[in-house]
Amino acid sequence: MDSEKFQCVGAVLHKAGDLRIESVSVREPLEDEVQISIQSVGICGSDVHYWTHGSIGPFIVKDPMILGHESSGMITKLGSKVTSFSIGDRVAIEPGIPCRKCTLCKSGKYNLCHEMQFCATPPIHGSLCSYYNHPADFCYKLPSNVSYDEAAMLEPLSVALHALQRAGLKAGNSVLVCGAGPVGLLNMMTAKASGASFVIVTDISEQRLETARKLGADACISVGKLSAVEVSKLVCEELMKHGLSGDGVDATVECSGASESVRSAIAATKPAGCVVLVGMGAPEVQIPVLDASVREVDIRGVFRYANTYPLALRLVASGKIDVKPLITHRFELKDSLDAFEVTRTMKDGAIKVIIDCSNSAKA
């Protein structure tokens, strides 16, 4: 009923370049939903891309859409059939809601559900607002030692966990991570926490490579305008310097989406190794298929994640992965435009920018 709605504040994208902080309507939660007072929201590269371009591939912003999908908050209302939570519970929000009924969902691969409704993917609204409704079964109660900011980081951490699962990472493996943005750094940290013996990170930014070193990368390579062959040679040299095989790494996680980086990922991976593609760049990329074929290098796609949030939460709560150093900037919801600009430009060494919605009352 309209009488049960109220107004709150949200960051609404109307079209490319037109992000407004304005009043948005919030309905009562459905019977299987909880209503959440949003506390922390991380800005993702996809949020910035929608803001700057108005689309990502086939997903086009045609109507005003609330951005944001890396979120956490406190439950303020319960749907009539929700028994697993109480008002006041602090939760992390897994932003993708599948149909739960199709073959893919039932096989555990719900990230590939054709009916997926994912926050801030047109036409579905995101959660960069002061109040938000979400199905209870895709919310996760936070232990007292996990902050709202850390809980928001479970979303990009889940991307890393899924990528390394797709790569078939085993303890003792060597890993190459291409790209030292937030997802690349989380892949490096997760690989180390999962028992990888040697992790190399590449990027074009010396500043980001220095961050990777501080966070535990065993070696860093500035790739600049190097060719795939040149990058592969440097990777193999780093491996041999540390007493490892010069055939290449066991697994490569490509997080930049850059065409030459994809080619470098394939070239630097050893025979029978695996490359997983996390970064999304051009829709079509020329790659050395013959080289990958004759060396039996597997090339696997990665799309979001499935069944990773509980593990991500355990890793953060236990201290096995410390996401706090990645959070470099915080803004209030009213200053979201500034937050997006800092994320876009990577100003002042920005890695992960968090928007604090805790002071945004009902409109």
Automatic annotation (TrEMBL):
GO terms for biological process: sorbitol catabolic process. Signal peptide: none annotated. Its cofactor is Zn(2+). The keyword Oxidoreductase applies. SMART domains: PKS_ER (SM00829). Keywords: Metal-binding, NAD, Oxidoreductase, Zinc. InterPro entries: ADH-like_C, ADH-like_N, ADH_Zn_CS, ER, GroES-like_sf, NAD(P)-bd_dom_sf, SDH-like. It comes from the Eukaryota. Residues 17-355 form the Enoyl reductase (ER) domain. It holds the Pfam family ADH_N. One of its GO terms (molecular function) is L-iditol 2-dehydrogenase (NAD+) activity. Transmembrane segments: none annotated. Belongs to the zinc-containing alcohol dehydrogenase family. PANTHER family: SORBITOL DEHYDROGENASE. This is Enoyl reductase (ER) domain-containing protein. The lineage of its organism: Eukaryota, Rhodophyta, Bangiophyceae, Porphyridiales, Porphyridiaceae.
